[in-house]
């Protein structure tokens, strides 16, 4: 089945550099892809008139109409399941799941159909679907609004999983995800939604499924993604005052993992701390630790350490500062690694 | 009270347009739109002006004292709701989910329940909570972020709030199946369960599956849907082509649309539905036709998606004003009574505020409690390690 073609991301917006929030970066990415390809549609709860509870889809229904921006019935299985049918019919749906904790009614469709149809049809059916998920904690929310479910999806073959950490990446990564012919679970760190950065359209983005060294260093390596990139960078800045020179790598893509830069880094520093909000048990952070010890065994000066959420349900908001990794916990792990 | 047989008869079609000569698809659909008006099927016993009216199937004998009790309930839960809303605005709560406008639906349903019945709320049912003996003090903790719900759901027979839309409907169906399996259904002393959900929730698979399960197992379950016309920014017609109560027929049980701003009608219909369930004639669907007077939550701004004229129209159907008018007009209550209820409401608000702002912060160790019924050594080790780490700060090193 021929997937509709669209302009590649080398087709940068003509606008001058501008300071944008992550929300704005995502909104502009949707707008740009919708303008370029009439088959790109947005679907989700409250994404139309309201513009989404985080306003990521603000103004899109007004400009593109109700048939391209769908205020769907309240049913996540319905959102994913019908997106699959629409994709078979040639559309490129971008689905919004309102909050991380509400993806599970759609889990069956994601794992059983979205992930497997390409395989089951010997590649005859492509599913260029993006599932956007505001994820993670730190906003003082009630239950089910602060979860980090990415590992469930990375565990499932057939799905690609990415997490952006800043407004510029959010913009380009979403455009690239929409262009991708595979289903992409797109995790957006909601606690970073209002942070700002300069988007310079003349700087071409790096490939979607690649990680990036965001701070060079020599004492130890921190590999992280999503909301914890900022936390890790803050830790590196604080650590510098104590003479620590930390390297920070933003993984960006969680499935496939692009670990070559991590291996290269660990071979230099001999130490790796993996940081994530998600509980550690049976998680992406465990996967990274396993692979790094296999690839860099003789370079490691200490075991790979992890700083993560605890293996509990997400706690009441007043305890989330305890649950979530912070600068101190990251630096404590660095100290432990150095003392090994 | 109407007999179950009534419901084995075909109900009037909800689609008159379909029988007219060659209607267009759009006309058929327009005729089925879910939200327009309460419609002729709406069960009402007390008009917005406070007049008692008769209904052929649903009657309610009620004493002036009981009437005053319902009025008091509604005033108190509204006052607690407004206080909690204010507490959120003042930064004392992270979020509040207002019940404003839905007092009659919730008090009518809540007061129809017996102590031996079970209730499964969604997240807006502060009025039902009140009827189950759950004080607003026990509710604000989860919105302040100190706990995930404070009451004992088994002892109160009031399940924890469920935020994931629709989940609780299947849990309620299972509980009601258990009531039947335990032989607690079949006579006047029978037990029943009531589950609360919204108009938006009716699109969730879990809700449809609960309809199927409750029907197949003849579960003593009352599905109480508060159609408050909105699911955040989406009007009910985004969820359904036909009035929600009519869905029940397709699953093989009765569905009734009641004026959810009429506490008397809601009480009568809810009592009847629970009686049906107790006697083994469940399940039943009740659609309480009401209105969400405030925004979805304190995080929402309803002016972005709905007209103020709609809100103004619904103000005229206020659930409390009509009872007040009825009480006054018939001499069932005097100034002293109304003043007394106001004073009580002020006191409740003060108690709630005092309690809320003084709620103790949970200790970090609390996070690790009750993850499992049988403690996990691995988790215990994680907790010990974290507490050792925290103790390291006690020396003031960092
Ligand atoms: C599975 C799931 N998806 C999305 C949400 C986000 N959400 C919370 S309330 C709500 C609307 C619910 O509307 P309705 O069922 O009519 O109940 P109401 O809030 O009007 O009482 C939505 C979409 C959720 N809580 N759970
Ligand atoms: Mg609603």
Automatic annotation (TrEMBL), chain A:
Gene Ontology MF terms: magnesium ion binding; oxidoreductase activity
SMART domains: Transket_pyr (SM00861)
Positions of the Transketolase-like pyrimidine-binding domain: 20-195
Listed InterPro entries: THDP-binding (IPR029061), Transketo_C/PFOR_II (IPR009014), Transketolase-like_Pyr-bd (IPR005475), Transketolase_C (IPR033248)
CDD domains, per database record: TPP_PYR_E1-PDHc-beta_like
Keywords: Oxidoreductase, Pyruvate, Thiamine pyrophosphate
Species of the source: Kutzneria buriramensis
UniProt xrefs under PANTHER family: PYRUVATE DEHYDROGENASE E1 COMPONENT BETA SUBUNIT, PYRUVATE DEHYDROGENASE E1 COMPONENT SUBUNIT BETA
Cofactor(s) needed for function: thiamine diphosphate
Protein name from the UniProt record: Pyruvate dehydrogenase E1 component beta subunit
From TrEMBL, chain B:
InterPro entries in the record: Alpha-ketoacid_DH_E1_comp, DH_E1, PdhA/BkdA, THDP-binding
GO molecular function, one term: oxidoreductase activity, acting on the aldehyde or oxo group of donors, disulfide as acceptor
Cofactor(s) needed: thiamine diphosphate
Keyword set, alphabetical order: Oxidoreductase, Pyruvate, Thiamine pyrophosphate
UniProt signal peptide: none
Source taxon at top rank: Bacteria
Any single GO BP term: branched-chain amino acid catabolic process
Region (Disordered): 1-23
Domain Dehydrogenase E1 component: from-to ranges: 72-346
Keyword Oxidoreductase carried by entry: yes
Keyword set includes Acyltransferase: no
Skewed-composition ranges (Low complexity): 8-23
UniProt-listed PANTHER family: 2-OXOISOVALERATE DEHYDROGENASE SUBUNIT ALPHA, MITOCHONDRIAL
Listed name of the protein: Pyruvate dehydrogenase E1 component alpha subunit
Organism: Kutzneria buriramensis
């Amino acid at each position: 089945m021929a997937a509709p073609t669209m302009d590649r991301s080398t087709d940068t917006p003509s606008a001058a550099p501008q300071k944008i929030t992550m929300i704005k970066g995502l909104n502009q990415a949707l707008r740009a892809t919708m303008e370029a390809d009439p088959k790109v549609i947005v679907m989700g709860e409250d994404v139309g008139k309201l513009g989404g509870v985080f306003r990521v889809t603000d103004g899109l229904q007004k400009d593109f109409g109700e048939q391209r921006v769908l205020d769907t019935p309240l049913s996540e299985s319905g959102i994913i399941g019908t997106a699959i049918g629409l994709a078979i019919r040639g559309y490129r749906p971008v689905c919004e799941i309102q909050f991380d904790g509400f993806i599970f009614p759609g889990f069956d469709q994601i794992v059983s159909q979205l992930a497997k149809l390409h395989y089951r049809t010997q590649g005859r059916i492509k599913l260029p679907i993006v599932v956007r998920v505001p994820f993670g904690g730190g906003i003082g929310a009630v239950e089910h609004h602060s979860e980090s479910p990415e590992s469930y999806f990375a565990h499932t073959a057939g799905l690609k999983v990415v997490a952006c950490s800043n407004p510029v990446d959010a913009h380009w990564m979403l455009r690239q995800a929409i262009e991708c012919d595979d289903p992409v679970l797109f995790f957006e760190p909601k606690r970073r939604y209002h942070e700002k950065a300069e988007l310079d359209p003349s700087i071409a983005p790096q490939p979607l499924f690649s990680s990036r060294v965001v701070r060079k260093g020599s004492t130890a390596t921190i590999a992280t993604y999503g909301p914890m990139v900022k936390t890790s960078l803050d830790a590196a800045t604080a650590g510098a005052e104590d003479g620590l020179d930390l390297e920070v790598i933003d993984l960006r893509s969680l499935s496939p993992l692009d670990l070559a830069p991590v291996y290269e880094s660990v071979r230099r520093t001999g130490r790796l701390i993996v940081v994530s909000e998600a509980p550690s048990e049976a998680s992406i952070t465990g996967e990274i630790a396993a692979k790094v010890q296999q690839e860099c065994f003789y370079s490691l000066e200490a075991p790979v350490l992890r700083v993560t959420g605890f293996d509990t349900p997400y706690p009441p908001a007043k305890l989330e500062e305890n649950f979530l990794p912070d600068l101190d916990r990251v630096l404590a792990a660095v100290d432990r690694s150095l003392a090994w | 009270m109407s007999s179950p047989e009534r419901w084995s008869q075909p109900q009037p079609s909800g689609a008159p347009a379909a029988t007219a000569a060659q209607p267009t698809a759009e006309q058929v659909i327009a005729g089925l739109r879910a939200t327009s008006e309460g419609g002729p099927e709406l069960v009402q016993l007390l008009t917005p002006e406070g007049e008692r009216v008769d209904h052929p199937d649903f009657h309610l004998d009620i004493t002036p004292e009981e009437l005053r009790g319902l009025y008091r309930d509604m005033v108190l839960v509204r006052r607690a709701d407004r206080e909690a809303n204010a507490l959120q605005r003042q930064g004392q709560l992270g979020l509040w989910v207002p019940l404003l406008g839905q007092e009659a639906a919730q008090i009518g349903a809540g007061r129809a329940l017996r102590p031996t019945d079970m209730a499964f709320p969604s997240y807006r049912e502060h009025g039902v909570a009140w009827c189950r003996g759950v004080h607003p003090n026990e509710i604000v903790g989860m919105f302040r972020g100190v706990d995930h719900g404070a009451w004992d759901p088994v002892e109160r027979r009031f399940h924890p709030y469920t935020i994931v839309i629709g989940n609780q409907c299947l849990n309620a169906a299972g509980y009601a199946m258990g009531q039947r399996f335990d032989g607690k259904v079949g006579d006047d002393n029978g037990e029943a369960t009531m589950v609360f959900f919204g108009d938006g929730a009716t699109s969730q698979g879990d809700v449809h599956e609960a309809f199927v399960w409750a029907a197949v197992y003849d579960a003593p379950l009352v599905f109480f849907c508060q159609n408050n016309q909105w699911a955040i920014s989406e009007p009910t017609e985004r969820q359904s082509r036909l009035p929600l109560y009519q869905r029940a027929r397709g699953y093989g049980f009765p569905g009734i649309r009641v004026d959810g701003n009429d506490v008397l009608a809601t009480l009568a219909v809810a009592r009847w539905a629970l009686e049906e369930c107790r006697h083994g004639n469940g399940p039943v669907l009740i659609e309480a036709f009401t209105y969400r007077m405030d925004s979805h939550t304190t995080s929402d701004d309803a002016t972005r998606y709905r007209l103020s004229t709609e809100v103004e129209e619904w103000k005229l159907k206020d659930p409390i004003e009509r009872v007040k008018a009825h009480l006054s007009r018939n001499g069932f209550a005097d100034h002293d009574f109304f003043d007394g209820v106001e004073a009580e409401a002020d006191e409740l608000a003060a108690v709630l505020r005092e309690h809320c702002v003084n709620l103790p912060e949970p200790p970090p160790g609390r996070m690790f409690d009750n993850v499992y019924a049988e403690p996990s050594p691995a988790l215990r080790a994680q907790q010990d390690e974290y507490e050792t780490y925290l103790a390291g700060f006690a020396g003031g090193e960092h």
